[in-house]
């Protein structure tokens, strides 16, 4: 096995940073949507609105998990760099492996969240088709 260098975990910094930016943008969009749905629900306690609220709640919790896993991955990449710096090569390899797994799980949750997002849009479409 080749030796792990500082550049390997450092390469993930830009990728994880961009992913975290996208996750944060999603989170902010959900916050705005929730506020809007709340106002609409107070005026009209519609079944479609309730379904949308449940959908966005599920997506919000998924996004939180995606953010936690992404941040944890970034943290472990930094720890990997520190372990390489203090010449703890074997531990660094294992820590970096865990960082990669966390990133994979975060991206898998993103796929799940996208599927749920499609269901939210289907609610809008079915509401339009119903009228």
Automatic annotation (TrEMBL):
Give the protein's recorded name.
Answer: DUF2721 domain-containing protein
Name the UniProt key words of this record, in alphabetical order.
Membrane, Transmembrane, Transmembrane helix
Provide an example Pfam family for this protein: DUF2721
Question: Which organism does this sequence originate in?
Answer: Seonamhaeicola maritimus
Q: Where are the transmembrane segments?
A: 12-33, 68-86, 92-111
């Amino acid at each position: 096995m080749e030796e792990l260098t500082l550049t390997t975990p450092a390469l993930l910094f830009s990728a994880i940073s961009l992913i975290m930016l996208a996750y944060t943008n999603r989170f902010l969009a959900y916050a705005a949507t929730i506020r809007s749905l709340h106002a609409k629900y107070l005026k009209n306690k519609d079944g479609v609105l309730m379904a949308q609220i449940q959908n966005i709640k599920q997506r919000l919790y998924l996004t939180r998990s995606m953010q936690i896993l992404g941040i944890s991955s970034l943290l472990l990449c930094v720890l990997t760099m520190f372990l390489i710096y203090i010449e703890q090569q074997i531990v660094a390899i294992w820590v970096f492996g865990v960082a990669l797994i966390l990133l994979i799980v975060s991206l898998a949750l993103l796929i799940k969240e996208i599927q749920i997002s499609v269901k939210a849009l289907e609610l809008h479409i079915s509401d339009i088709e119903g009228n």
